[in-house]
Design a protein that fits this description.
Blueprint (H helix, E strand, L loop, with lengths): L5 E2 L2 H4 L3 H10 L5 H6 L1 H7 L31 H20 L2 E6 L6 H13 L5 E5 L23 H14 L2 H5 L1 H7 L4 H18 L2 H12 L8 H17 L3 H14 L3 H17 L8 H16 L4 H21 L3 H18 L6 H17 L3 H14 L4 H13 L3 H14 L5 H12 L3 H14 L4 H13 L3 H14 L4 H13 L3 H14 L4 H13 L3 H11 L6 H13 L3 H14 L4 H8 L1
Parallel strand pairs: 1-2, 2-3
């Protein structure tokens, strides 16, 4: 059965032009319970269909005015939406029968649609959904989107005006994201083009469609006049730079903030540009290019300006924002105690000057950050109190459950941690982190197959999740499935060539394959990049013992035990000590291992012998 052919040209409806058309074709016939389960994904892709898609899950931000919704979606937000939508399509077609989807003009699609089509192809059996693209489009997941401006123009400016007027009368959100800005830019009134672009840029930023913001914002900046409408111009610039930063295009983002510094004399613009420049420098996607010292200079400039703002509420918010940013810089400089003082100062500013209900998201961010710093400083109970408060205030925001689950795991409260991870799985569109984290708990409890299932699902959601590839490779190696382990290592190293955890897994694989020189090189490479990695010391120690070097094994196992006593490592070091003629030390290790694992028969046997 064919779905109606879908035109993916982003000039029509902007992000999710194709996705929205697929939603429109499937939702009316889908079970209401299934639609409700994927409400966030469906509403994001088809904002004009809100009446058919009841809003079931939402966070505190949905109730707030735009100025107080300060969180910017992470770059992987659209992947989460695509994964949730793929699950909706898969479940719906399993009930109603297979379909063929024909998508045209993929080469002119927004990156959200190209990502979506790639996920549909990857996660749904082609026997259930066959995705076909136009002959000139190429694979849906390959290449970059073409430039619609290069398409052949057939309308006069007056005809573009008339078409935009007609679409505005219809009042659909989708047209306001694609067709209306396109026609207004080619019409006769630049001011109306700026207004059309303003709506589109803001909507796309709120939705996490960063590629669209970068494109639309650049088009808007070419039309906006910083002298005539400075606030509008600054909003375009700030939104565009924010999107560029999220897309790992930090140099382009910084160039825009430099432009703002050249063209504006507004204190709030200079403070915001200084803060944002600091964040670009301290959060650069390439760790080697991070510069916390330069970031400190910029964020101090933001603080100095914000301190002088005359309105107490504005000052409390903006200065608190800047102090929170400096806290991140202080953490990167190795000063978490100073960072905590700064966040506490921001909390007190908010409590004193923002009023009881002002800027609730800002307050929750501060509390969540205070919790993270308390963890760093070894004060987990304080951290837990803050995270409990944050979740009580905004139970619909998944990320806080991950933070609390991680803390509960560290506190040894595994069941409660799993409950938080599972709540995070339900609270929003699917993402790999809660499955990855639950896998660690399952592995520690001896449920290796359960851990493997969670890692498999995490990597189904995001095949490029390097940490999950490393953990699955290590787990598969431990289970003796070396072919699968090697495939994961190779996939991970193609993304992160020096990842020490992947190199450690590679060492295990090479050792099992009887290639000790390659195994030693892999372990050495892991330790060169992560000198305290206990698994690499343990793996290298086992390799040394197996190749007749008990003294080297003792030394490596000793380094591994610096991370904490572990009965298996103590047992292994005892065997190496015994082989090296150090029987007394071996017995001491075995006695300590038995204290930690009193039911371990191997340890008892060796002690008795």
């Amino acid at each position: 059965m064919l779905l109606p052919p879908v035109d993916a040209d982003r000039r029509l409806r902007g992000p999710y032009t194709a996705g929205g058309a697929i939603v429109a074709a499937l939702v009316p016939a889908a079970r209401p319970e299934l639609v409700a389960r994927y409400d966030i994904e469906l509403r994001a892709m088809a904002p004009d269909m809100g009446g058919l898609i009841p809003e079931r899950r939402r966070s505190l931000a949905a109730h707030l005015p735009r100025a107080e919704r300060i969180l910017v979606h992470a770059p992987r937000r659209t992947l989460r939406l695509a994964n949730g939508f793929a699950e909706f399509v898969r479940e719906h077609l399993a009930e109603t029968g297979p379909r063929t989807l024909v998508v045209e003009n993929v080469h002119l699609a927004d990156p959200t649609d190209r990502e979506l089509l790639a996920v549909l192809r990857r996660r749904i059996d082609p026997g259930l959904l066959a995705v076909m693209t136009g002959e000139h489009a190429g694979p849906a997941e390959a290449g970059e989107a073409g430039d619609p401006a290069e398409a052949e123009e057939t309308l006069t400016p007056a005809e573009h005006d008339a078409r935009a007027d007609e679409l505005e009368r219809e009042g659909t959100v989708g047209a306001r994201l694609g067709a209306i800005p396109y026609h207004r830019e080619r019409g006769t009134d630049p001011r109306r083009a700026v207004e059309a672009l303003r709506f589109a840029v803001q909507w796309c930023l709120d939705a996490g469609c960063h590629d669209a913001v970068a494109e639309l914002g650049a088009r808007a900046l070419a039309l906006a006049d910083p002298a005539a409408e400075p606030d509008v111009w600054w909003r375009f610039l700030h939104s565009t730079a924010t999107a560029l930063g999220a897309l790992n295009r930090e140099e382009e983002a910084e160039a825009l903030f430099d432009r703002a510094r050249r063209e504006s004399v507004s204190p709030t613009v200079h403070a915001a540009a200084a803060y944002s420049t600091a964040m670009l420098k301290v959060r650069h996607h390439d760790p080697a290019r991070r510069d916390p010292e330069a970031a400190l200079a910029w964020v101090n400039q933001a603080i100095a300006i914000s301190t002088l703002l005359p309105d107490p509420r504005e000052r409390a918010f903006k200065l608190g924002f800047d102090l929170n940013g400096r806290a991140l810089v202080e953490v990167r400089l190795g000063r978490p105690a100073r960072a905590l003082e700064l966040v506490q100062e921001a909390v007190e500013l908010a409590e004193r000057d923002l009023g009881p209900d002002g800027h609730p998201i800002h307050r929750l961010v501060l509390l969540a950050n205070r919790a993270q710093l308390a963890v760093l400083l070894g004060r987990p109970e304080e951290a837990l109190k803050d995270l409990d408060a944050v979740i009580a205030a905004d139970p619909g925001y998944p990320d806080y459950y991950i933070d609390r689950g991680n803390l509960l795991h560290r506190l040894g409260r595994a069941e409660e941690a799993v409950a938080d991870y599972e709540t995070a799985m339900r609270a929003g569109p699917p993402f790999p982190e809660p499955y990855y984290n639950r896998a660690e708990i399952r592995f520690a409890a001896g449920d290796h197959r359960g851990a493997l299932a969670d890692l498999n699902h995490a990597l189904e959601l995001d095949p490029g999740f390097v940490d999950a590839l490393a953990n699955r490779a290590g787990l598969l190696a431990a289970l003796g499935e070396y072919g699968g382990a090697r495939a994961d290592v190779e996939a991970g190293l193609a993304i992160d060539a020096g990842n020490p955890y992947l190199l450690c897994a590679l060492g295990q694989i090479e050792a099992a394959g009887g290639r000790p020189d390659r195994a030693r090189a892999a372990f050495d490479g892991a330790l060169e990049r992560a000198p305290s990695l206990a698994a690499a010391w343990a793996g290298r120690g086992a390799l040394a013992f197996e190749t007749g070097d008990p003294a080297g094994a003792v030394a490596d196992f000793t380094r591994a035990l610096e991370s904490g006593d572990d009965p298996a490592l103590l047992y292994n070091r005892a065997m190496a000590l015994r082989a090296a003629g150090r029987a007394g030390e071996a017995s001491a290790d075995l006695r300590r291992a038995l204290e930690l694992a009193p039911d371990d028969e191997d340890i008892r046997r060796e002690l008795a012998g």
